[in-house]
Specification:
The protein is of the alpha/beta class. It is built from 7 helices and 10 strands. The strands form 3 sheets. A 4-stranded parallel sheet has the order 6-10-3-7. Strands 5-4-9-8 form a 4-stranded mixed sheet, with helices on one face. Strands 1-2 form a two-stranded antiparallel ribbon. It is elongated and about 70 Å long.
Length: about 240
């Protein structure tokens, strides 16, 4: 066997191993505070064959690097969010179940079309309109998830249940975005020029992924959302 053939075989074996490791990693991804991707597979909310096909389509982003001892290093990656070829496109049925998507009230709907995010048709935002919600969970050891929920201390789910959201927007943008610091969140892509910042009091859920805020802050959020509609736009940022 030539050196070229040996390298090809070694590269193929490394690629198989890398994708197997990627599958293990993705199975551990928290969809929400109760369900991982692996749980969803067991519960048949996700088709295992579809996930396998998704893994096989992963892109090589580093390597192959051929070491002197004959080993090969290769790094593969997939997209979590995005319109095409993303993990969100596979797990979105699980996310939608949590979202409890509210049907659009628009009278004329094109068959098979996905409704857009509902927003007030204003020419420009008022200066006192909040553009996003930042939940400061610093110091509370929150664990990121694809579809976290937000609760008030009295147990009311503020986000995302009952919010009229398009599944296509969920796939493209995600339910929320995570940042290491409050200043970073305030400069985040979805923050806008006037984010509403609230401090989480504690974290709930089996995987410690759901922030809990005071009833007073919950009321403030719902009142601010009447004009800003930042919840429907999924402009929610979480500081971890």
């Amino acid at each position: 066997m030539s050196n070229s053939q040996k390298k090809n075989l070694a590269y193929t074996a490394a690629l198989v191993t890398a994708r197997r490791n990627l599958l293990i990693t993705l199975e551990g991804v928290r969809i929400n505070s109760k369900t991982t991707v692996k749980d969803a597979i067991v519960e048949e909310s996700i088709i295992e064959e579809e996930l396998d096909g998704f893994i096989k389509g992963s892109q090589v982003i580093n390597g192959p690097i051929f070491e002197e001892d004959g080993t090969v290093k290769v790094t593969v990656a997939v997209k979590i969010w995005g319109k095409k070829d993303s993990l969100a496109g596979i797990v979105v049925p699980v996310i939608n179940e949590q979202l409890q998507v509210v049907p659009s009230a628009t009278p004329s709907v094109v068959p098979s079309a996905i409704p857009s995010v509902i927003a007030s048709p204003v020419a420009e935002e008022k200066k006192d309109t909040y553009t996003s919600l930042i939940i400061d969970c610093s110091g509370l050891e929150i664990r990121p998830a694809m579809s976290p929920a937000l609760y008030s201390e009295s147990g009311k789910q503020i986000y995302t249940a009952g919010i009229p959201v398009s599944p296509s927007v969920v796939i493209e943008k995600g339910i929320s975005r995570y940042y290491d610091t409050l200043p970073a969140a305030e400069k985040g892509e979805n923050a806008g020029n006037k984010p509403l910042v609230v401090k989480a009091k504690k974290i709930s859920g089996n995987f410690a992924s759901d922030p809990i805020i005071s009833d007073e802050d919950a009321k403030k959020i719902m009142e601010a959302n009447e004009s800003g509609r930042f919840l429907e736009k999924l402009n929610v940022l979480i500081v971890i």
